[in-house]
Amino acid sequence: MALSAALRRVDFADLPGWDTDDHAAAFEAFRRCAHHAAVRPYRSGALGIDSAAFQSAYEAARRSGALGPDESRAFFEHHFRPFAVAPGGKAGFVTGYYEPIVAASTERTSTFTFPLLARPDDLVDLDDRNRPADMDPSFAFGRSVSGAIVEYHDRAAIERGAVDHRVLALAWLSDPVDLFFIHVQGAARLVFGDGTTRRFTYAAKSGHPFTGPGRVLAGLGEIAPEDVTMQSIRAWFRANPGRIDEILWQNRSYIFFREAPVADPDLGPIAAAKVPLTPGRSLAVDRLLHTFGTPVHVDAPQLAVDGRPFRRLMIAQDTGSAIVGAARGDLFFGSGDEAGEIAGTVRYPAGFYALVPNTLAGRAQ
Asked: In this structure, are strands 123-125 and 114-117 parallel, antiparallel, or unpaired?
């Protein structure tokens, strides 16, 4: 498998902030991928970073215990070589995401009226074998109706009652905007009246394309494009509660959920790479191009976290419908309001450097 021309060989000395990063947390995130890959290898992306080439690094990570910062840095420098991800010479771009923590109820009440829904029985996975010829090939889900497959109901139809909310409700929330942002983030920890906390994460979606409310509001002239953040969107909805459905229903995509354990409260939900996300070290990427488990050094100097420019080694462990392109990433910042305050404002140019296993890097020289 040949490496893409979008990858350009560089040296570790060329990676901004490489020498000052603490690589230990990135190593732990990488080691989780190594254990998963031993059971089910990841699919290789179109950039040509073959998942089979990770075998030596994965085996070494599985044999190892926890490593300190210097040992972790040495591990990555021993097993990998860095390549700048520079398609067409254009700058990359990062955003942020997090896991909300929101109050909820197990029953519908006068306060908690907005349902978090489980996957419906009539929702079917689509691929090239069963997708109708007249359906857009981007649709990964459809609806089974009397043996035929059609597009699933969109957000407006679902929220108006096209599916039975009382049958499918996993929990009930008090705020439709909170519910929408749980859809955007793909997971949440819900806190119930008895003090228990339960995690719910992505199970499936309607199949329709995602249209962000920020784009809609910018297009209407309600928020300047450069001012669109999660916080500015929430503020607009608070000021215009009667227009929430008008704006959100322009996003036809709808997300369904399932319950998932909270094995380690310091880690995020299990995401697309089938390992729990690590705050500040897990990266969502375009999974058609990137290979899960790939270490990616991200240089976003305009983003300051803990008073320092964001220059960190991340591990590709998740994906998202809005994450398209080789030099596009979404940074996972953790759980709760503090993480959300950071994630919701992140929209910065960034450089991406993929660490390629030595066996592949040698062929590219």
From this structure: unpaired
- Integer Cα distance of 279 and 122 in angstroms: 35
- Going by C-alpha positions, the residue among 288, 280, 292, 289 that lies closest to residue 343 is 280
Please give the radius of gyration of the chain, using alpha carbons only, rounded to the nearest integer.
21
- pLDDT for residue 246: 97
> Residue 117 maps to which CATH number?
2.40.240.50
Q: Which of 45, 27, 70, 1 is nearest to 285 (CA)?
A: 45
Contact 194, 284 (CB under 8 A): no
CB atoms within 10 A of CB 226: 8
Shared domain check, 241 and 132: yes
Residue 124 lies in a domain: yes
- Whether residues 118 and 81 share a domain: the answer is no
Q: 341 to each of 159, 174, 321, 337, 348, how far by Cα in Å?
A: 28, 20, 22, 6, 15
- The tens digit of pLDDT for each residue in 315-356 reads 999 998 889 999 999 999 999 999 999 999 999 999 999 999
Question: Cα–Cα distance between 22 and 8 in angstroms, integer?
Answer: 25
pLDDT higher than 90, residue 93? yes
Same domain, 246 and 141: yes
The amino acid sitting at 214 is G
Instruction: State the chain's mean pLDDT as an integer.
Output: 95
Amino acid at 9: R
2 in a structural domain: no
Is this model's pTM higher than 0.85 or not?
yes
Distance of alpha carbon 46 from alpha carbon 157, whole angstroms: 36
User: What's the total number of domains in the chain?
Assistant: 2
pLDDT single digits (tens) 301-322: 999 998 999 999 999 999 988 8
The CATH number for 40's domain is 2.40.40.10
- Does 195 lie in the same domain as 137? yes
